[in-house]
Amino acid sequence: MRDPLLLLCSFNAVTFLSFGWDLTNYNISSNYYVSSIAVYGNRAFLALPRSSCYNNNTNPTLVEASWYNEQPVFFGRTPFFLDSQTWKNCEHLQDVISVDMEPMRPRLWVLDKGSIECPAKIVIYNLFQRVNYSLDAPEDTGRKFSCIVVDNGPKLNGARGYISFDGLPDLLVFSINEFKWWRIRLEPQDSILPVSTKFIAFSRKEDVLYVTGGEERGIFSLDLTLLRQEFADEVESVNVTFLGEKLGASSALVADFKDGLSYYIPRDFVVVRWNTRQPPQAEYYNVLAQSYDLLPYVSQLYTGPQNGIWAIANPGHPTQCPTDSPHLEKRLVKLLKYNMFT
Length: 342
Known about the structure:
By secondary structure, this protein is mainly beta. It is built from 2 helices and 23 strands.
């Protein structure tokens, strides 16, 4: 029997729209690692984690670039957060691993993993008023942080950030109005597969949060109404629904308006899309892109302007930097464009 993924990957060559970022104004060479992107208008905010072997502790860990083009990153101004990124200064950003924009507001949420000397924290910037909020994360949580997504649902009293963990079945919830944390444990009710929250993504059509790990094969869904309630100070458990198994170990996760859920399989340098209305079997998948030259490693899949799905490409895994890593000029690759109304 043929490997289902090999059968899945028989497709015609496609030319993809792709762009790069010139970060030389930040004294950053082309061989950098971007873990996360957040976009506001034509402004793109990039997380360059200092914990990646591709990046340097002396360079910024959060930068601003232009979205969707290759123009220089400065537009007659210097990003106001550049002056607060000194290494080993715990009041400053240390190791930014994930960013997200608050829906319908010019507020940038930044997840800082911290360092041996400095605790992990969350920092929220208002892009126009230069007002920021900062709060240290609970002890013994930051070194396992993976990513942050921001929920601003109509039934919430202020936005909440959901922070995921690498290899753990937990979410850390931060309320900006109450300025406090809760830790939530996800409990699968219909699967023996372990839950890891390393990669999380909102459904585009329902009040659902999709959850999966890296090496862990299970895909789960969580009813967002369970996260939008008030919690006690101790760790509380919420149930998640098992959706099925992935085709392999993965990175990145994004949902689209057509009931699709996409992720990247590093083993095969491929981004695949599953129709969540169907069983998670190979015949209900399609390949969005497969290329070692274009996508040697994907850290994030992102729904950009006009409902297109974009991949953030990197030369390799953030902690594996072989001397023969490919030189990537194109970092933003458009994989899919669709009309959400048809």
